[in-house]
Amino acid sequence: MSDYQVFETLQSFIDDTSSKSLTTDIEVSDDIEEEQLALKAEKSTDDTSPELLSSVHAVSRGVSDETHTTYQRLMKKCEQFLQDNGYLDNAATFFSESPSRLAPYHLILWIQDACDTVKYDRSGSYIERPSTEVRLSYTHAMKMRAAATYGFGRVHQLGDAAWRHSPISDTWEGNPSLASLVSTYMVSLRRRKVQAGEAPISARAVTPELLKQLWNHNVHSPFYSMSQVDFEAYVAKQSKSERLANGVWCGPRGLRLLNLVYTLAFTCLLRIDEVLKIQYQDLIPISEKDASKAVLKLQLPFRKTDQHGDIKPFILHEMPKDMMHLCPIRAFARWVNATNTNEGFIFRRIASGDRLGEGSLSMTAEAFLEMFRMNLLDIGVDPAPYGTDSFRRGGCQWMSVHLRKPWRDICEWGGWSTDLSYLTIVKYLISGSDEPTERRENYFNFEKLVGEHCTYCGRRCPCGFQ
């Protein structure tokens, strides 16, 4: 069977599965937009010497050295797969500045072979894989696609333009990984994975009620009011296994750090890496006529979706007492009082005995996630559905449902695109992994009191702050 027949069969398979799963143009456009936001590459157009461009390119890859190494490894695996299966005579030419018009098909075949619930049979059809056959997760499929996006977009400087045919030059231009065909396949793959029993990948949104539970547990912990000296003396009497058995995994500083991260990520709709990179110089007090009310300006120096400046500041006002569990200003004040620090990164690595690391090193996302999960276990909540993106998803829902903010305002506050043509914000507002906001049996029970006591209208209604 010729390669073109293989690609025709693949095209028919994608068309068939996407129509059966009701894949929409909006989902495909959202998928392409997410990949573009993740890359944000710019193509050089000046006449600078190749040697200088090469040096500049090496230090401006946009990803960490570890991620760069991972992507390079996956790119080599892709080329090896294409070579072993005879799709290319010279697989090394797959990632290049002038990719083949068939590159999107090659990419799909590579991902499909490793991750899909079906596989291509050389006889010309697709068959279901046996349940005993090992398949990689959808998360890994996204990583494979991200490596290809990076390879074409960053390494070979094709940028973040969608793959398209130019009728003028009769050539294909842009990034093959951003082809609508690839996005259509990824959307249908995600649905097949979920139907096969793989857990949905979107993190469950944290709710104001959950944050209130965490805040109550943390501030009422017997260790919260301890001095650092007393806590270090307390833990010194126990081994690590004894401390864990007694639930002593975090001290007064760690508990305050968690509360501050929770509130900043939730109210400012920040990615967790953006929160952990905040330094003291980024939080600036603002003078108000009413000296009894504190106001802070958070000025981020860098954002993943806005890497070239003009980042709008977050103006944070002290919240009412009934919302203190959501108030970043209160949490920040308690953190500063407990640590007596005012330079470097705010969120630092916490060593044994609740001791803070150096201000030149920030806490890693992995370390925070581990602490967050331990904190959830403290209040008897299963941590499995939650992740680092749970806070910005929860904050978005809180602003829309509880604060009744217009979607455009939420997008502007979070630094997202205000072009609502594709309703990208919807995936933050609605997800099958979230807890229902109301029990089904009470949906039309108008006598059922919902929400908490509203400080504005005096009733128990959904508009009450929670």
TrEMBL record:
GO terms for biological process: DNA integration; DNA recombination. Coiled coil: none annotated. GO terms for molecular function: DNA binding. It comes from the Eukaryota. Keywords: DNA recombination. PANTHER family: DNA ADENINE METHYLTRANSFERASE (PTHR34605:SF4), PHAGE_INTEGRASE DOMAIN-CONTAINING PROTEIN (PTHR34605). This is Tyr recombinase domain-containing protein. It comes from Leucocoprinus birnbaumii.
